[in-house]
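Page 37, continued from 36.
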């Protein structure tokens, strides 16, 4: 795999090649995910839920996103790293938005940022893109709007709502975004958006017709049990595997099987016991 850039994603859409995206938040997981061949890593503000235990993504700060981004960047070689701009880092003013996007790139080492929203955020996307910072959009179910939406609910279920989301998609593209996450909408609407846009759509809970798919790594590995969305495919139950390993360790320590003679040093100046 060559170094992946935002231009490659647009080419992948043109070539009809699906784009797999996963989240990662730290060095070790990034090395595994990239080693397996993932071309795009999203440092999502979902970190606040799956790593910090918050109920939603709203408490996450720019400093935390910079910290996680720099950990991910140290672990990857080729994958494109896109970082979420957290709640309140881009909604208040264009100046804030530009400064915070710049910090995430400069201090974190991200290669693109992601912002949630459509028509209402188009000027912000334009302003960040004018700074030569690639922007990924995020429309449909936008987790930072959880209180307005009244929960994590499917969006665009009737034609009026669907048309508003299509307007969002077009606004995001026109503002200069290089790709857009489409979350929590009916598959038919995601297909319509994907056909309408020339930039790639990356779906989550949006069916099979998007140009790519994204999942939260903790969900697909079975590491996060608090919420289990129906759209997630669990590829492995790591919680169960880790539980078995930890129980074995506890038992080994209890019975004196760990450390075994291969796990400690026998040379040195310490007195022989007894
Ligand atoms: O924060 C995140 O991980 C995301 C994905 C769910 C798309 O925004």
């Amino acid at each position: 795999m060559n170094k992946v850039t935002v231009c490659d994603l647009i080419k992948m859409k043109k070539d009809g090649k699906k784009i797999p995206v996963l989240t990662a938040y730290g060095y070790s997981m990034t090395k595994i995910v990239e080693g397996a061949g993932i071309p795009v890593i999203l440092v999502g503000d979902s970190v606040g839920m799956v790593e910090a235990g918050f109920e939603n993504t709203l408490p996450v700060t720019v400093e935390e996103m910079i910290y996680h981004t720099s950990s991910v960047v140290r672990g990857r070689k080729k994958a494109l790293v896109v970082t979420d701009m957290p709640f309140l880092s881009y909604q208040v003013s264009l100046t804030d938005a530009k400064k915070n996007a710049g910090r995430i790139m400069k201090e974190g080492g991200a290669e693109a940022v992601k912002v949630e929203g459509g028509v209402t955020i188009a000027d912000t996307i334009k302003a960040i893109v004018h700074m030569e910072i690639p922007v990924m959009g995020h429309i449909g179910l936008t987790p930072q709007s959880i209180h307005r939406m009244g929960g994590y609910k499917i969006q665009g279920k009737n034609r009026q709502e669907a048309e508003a989301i299509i307007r969002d998609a077009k606004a995001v593209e026109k503002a200069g975004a290089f790709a857009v996450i489409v979350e929590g909408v009916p598959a038919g609407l995601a297909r319509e958006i994907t056909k309408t846009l020339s930039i790639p759509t990356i779906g989550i809970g949006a069916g099979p017709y998007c140009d790519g798919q994204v999942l939260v790594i903790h969900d697909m590995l079975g590491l996060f049990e608090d919420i289990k969305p129906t759209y997630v495919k669990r590829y492995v139950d790591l919680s169960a595997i880790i539980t078995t390993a930890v129980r074995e360790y506890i038992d080994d320590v209890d019975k004196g099987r760990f450390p075994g003679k291969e796990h400690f040093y026998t040379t040195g100046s310490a007195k022989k016991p007894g």
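The chain is about 40% helix and 15% strand. Flag for discussion at group meeting. Residues 23, 42, 44-46, 84, 181, 204, 214, 216 surround 3-methyl-2-oxobutanoic acid (CB under 6 Å).
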